[in-house]
Amino acid sequence: MAYEFKLPDLGEGITSGEIKKWHVRKGQKVEEDQTIAEVETDKAVVELPSPVTGIVEDIKAPEGGKVNVGEVIAVIKEEGAPEAPPQPKAAEKAQEARKPEVPAPKAEAQKVPVLATPATRMLAKQLGVNIDSVKGTGPMGRITDEDVRSAAQKPAAKPAEAPVPAPAMKAAGKEERIPFRGIRRTISENMIRSVSKTAQVTLVDDADLTRLVEFRERINKKLGGEVKISYLALFVKAVVAALIAHPTLNSSLDEEKGEIVLKKYYNIGIAVDTDRGLIVPVLKDADKKSLIDISKELVHIIELTRDGRIGIEQLKGNTFTIANIGSVGGLFSTPIINYPDVAILEMQQIRDMPRVVDGSIVIRKVMYLPLTIDHRIVDGAEGQRFMNDLKRFLEDPEQLLVSMV
């Protein structure tokens, strides 16, 4: 029996994907739950497991091809499926007619494939959960992310790192053409959508981080190397404290209903530079986590993102975004909002710069802070008030500590 393997529902409203890589070829035997392909969506690269055991009869979608959810991408001949017997000749038919009837053997019951999206399967793999043993509570017994979390009995096992294939390139004279697809094309679509649907304006200020630099050094010295508090973690805490005071910057616009949605949760998107392009994992419930927990989680999600192992559920739900390009260089730029957020903050380099303090010129640790806001929702004055509070928390670590209480 031929099983038509269709691109499954990948969740999060994703309607299509691009075949990034096939892990099988025509004629190859595959086992149930064996990864047979990687599909790249506008969120992440998702591994597709085979729902059945059998032989790959045909591959319908080429690498680099775009496919829609529900479209057949491969045909698998299931193991143990009965084949149609050859048609008997006329003489044999007459002879067979005189033979007593023998009951045909019953077909072996086939295993029902587990109903779960690739994202849920990836989550199960990360949490070390055997998805076959999980009871689904979704429609028609579909296994949900919450079902997997409930079944998790141990910390997530680190999956083997998969090498990222280099993009195919075509050279022509003095030109080199690189396929415009995958993450690169997704970034393009997201950027165009952001600038076309919002009214973006960038405010730029600077902050004297001298005391914050000293504060961080003291904390890390006391921690003794057990965990390292990063500047990014300190900025996350300062941003959340400022967002609580200025809720319009932690909102989105529901254009269909004509409503501004003020969000009472604080999920901070972290723009990560990877070999595949810019990807934004999300640090969820940042207001409820300690500085140490945030530092640890940032290291973890950034590592997963750069290794290409980040799950789709870790790339959704952002309410505000921080981009840190200080390690690359530059003075400041105008970051583009991570739609549907209404604001994005960019961290730049900490530079030794002259400042006037108590009438004297001294050298201080200074960072430029570009903040892009959606002027449809956030007025310039409110954006600057947010910036003023953010600077206050960054320039005076004691106030930042008080905000965490």
TrEMBL record:
It comes from the Archaea. It holds the Pfam family E3_binding. Residues 115-152 form the Peripheral subunit-binding (PSBD) domain. GO terms for cellular component: cytoplasm. The keyword Acyltransferase applies. The keyword Repressor does not apply. Residues 2-77 form the Lipoyl-binding domain. Residues 78-110, 152-171 are annotated as: Disordered. Residues 90-101 have a biased composition (Basic and acidic residues). GO terms for molecular function: acetyltransferase activity; lipoic acid binding. Keywords: Acyltransferase, Lipoyl, Pyruvate, Transferase. Its cofactor is (R)-lipoate. InterPro entries: 2-oxoA_DH_lipoyl-BS, 2-oxoacid_DH_actylTfrase, 2-oxoacid_DH_E2_comp, Biotin_lipoyl, CAT-like_dom_sf, E3-bd_dom_sf, PSBD, Single_hybrid_motif. Belongs to the 2-oxoacid dehydrogenase family. This is Pyruvate dehydrogenase E2 component. It comes from Methanocella paludicola (strain DSM 17711 / JCM 13418 / NBRC 101707 / SANAE).
